# Entry
Amino acid sequence: MRGSPRSGAGTGGCVTPGIPAGCCDDPASSPSGPVSARIYVVGAGLAGLVAAEHLASRGGAVTILEASPKAGGRCRSYRDDRLGRVIDNGNHLILSANTAVLGWADRIGGADRLRMLDAAFPYLDLDTGARWSLELGRGPFAALSPRARAPGTPLGPLLRDMVRLMTGPARRPLGRVVRDRGAHWRTFWDPLTRAVLNEPPEGGDAGLMRATLMRSFAKGGGTARPVVAPDGLGAALIEPALDRLERAGATIRYRTAVQGLSDDGSRVTGIHLRDADIRVGPGDRIVLALPPAPLAAVLPDLPLPAPGGAIANAHFVVPGTDLPPILAVLGATTQWVFRRGDVVSVTVSAAEDSALDGMDRAAALDHLWGEMRAILIAHGCHAPRDRPAARFLREKAATFDQTPDGVRRRASTTMPWANLFLAGDHTDTGLPATLEGAVLSGQAAGRAALD
Ligand SMILES: Cc1cc2nc3c(=O)[nH]c(=O)nc-3n(C[C@H](O)[C@H](O)[C@H](O)COP(=O)(O)OP(=O)(O)OC[C@H]3O[C@@H](n4cnc5c(N)ncnc54)[C@H](O)[C@@H]3O)c2cc1C
# Structure
């Protein structure tokens, strides 16, 4: 099974070099006993959970294999002992346009753990001290209103670049589409591209930016309302799914990393774990819901986007602050601040392209706390001089490579092996690496596996 999916199915044997097929067997599907039809979902991130729920709720006998001790992948919450609070691994911006995510929360019973805000994005420019709120009214023309852009910035250059973005070819770097390097570059294109694509704006894929804007801001404020999770994303999107999967009879095996597959030329016949193999029976199906790096280890010949850049988050406990729930920051390393209760959390996307590159954790926290003090002071909040309890998390490969080169290499849901399907935000959803893309990819894989 070394053949590239583009060149057709492989020749049989072991997908991952060095791991023999059939070296030992999983007790759940021992070759000595009857092999009942099962569906194996590899990866318990959002995409894997969505695929598993789709299949389990339709009567499939689902087993999820997850390498880590916890579900949620890049969208996980946990109680941080140093902070004494539940935090997310990283701040996630969900918009009301993300109907797949909201539908998922609704389906699993997590919707009451989400809260929708007004379509208003407060900004603070630390260079000038200016503060404003970018507000979107209802309807498709709301984006043309002066309130939908930074004060004093003209509509003309923004409109011309928008027309170029909406009408030109998709697979181009945004830097070649957007010509205006004035105020809109600094206040709109740069922060938005980093937030949406986790890429500096020059190289990010214009088609993905277009897809995002068409689904949200271009339709007006109704689709651009931020959605926050006051108790953490896990409580809304992950934990209710685990309950639902358990009720549907699905099982999850944690600390179970899949290392390779074997096949007979047309179907996958075995799943290789570190110290056991699972025999895949004639009716069994597999959904691989892995990010590009571990997926490349399992399917070495599959063309895939390279892993993308890091997203850094710093969480500080600051009692008594009334910062808005979401704040965009210009003129600083800090790009966004999310406040949940007394935890204020800083996000820096494309972190390699920021002042944090090369800094150790302590230096990064000191640097970001200095900025946070300035942000608190600008909002008239108490700003302790000494850094409070804090946590710094740098998620490497937070997204896939979302330049045109990376986007061209996105894989499809179906594979030349009839019983193998892919899910994950890197698959060809037409959307950036987001929760929305992950949910859609999981649904697509679930549907394909049932077909
Ligand atoms: C810091 C950060 C901030 C983000 N901000 C936003 C945002 O604002 N808005 C937004 O929409 N999206 C955001 N994202 C992206 C979003 O989190 C992802 O798109 C989404 O969670 C991807 O889900 P997934 O299931 O495709 O992959 P993952 O969540 O990566 O799930 C893959 C799972 O596979 C497991 N695994 C890996 N290797 C193996 C193996 N060999 N065997 C078995 N299991 C394995 C992993 O442990 C993991 O649980 C952010 C991501 C990060 C990291």
Residues 2-36 have pLDDT under 50 and may be disordered. DSSP finds eleven helices and 21 strands in the chain. The first strand starts at residue 13 and ends at 14. Residues 54 and 447 are 8 Å apart (CA to CA).
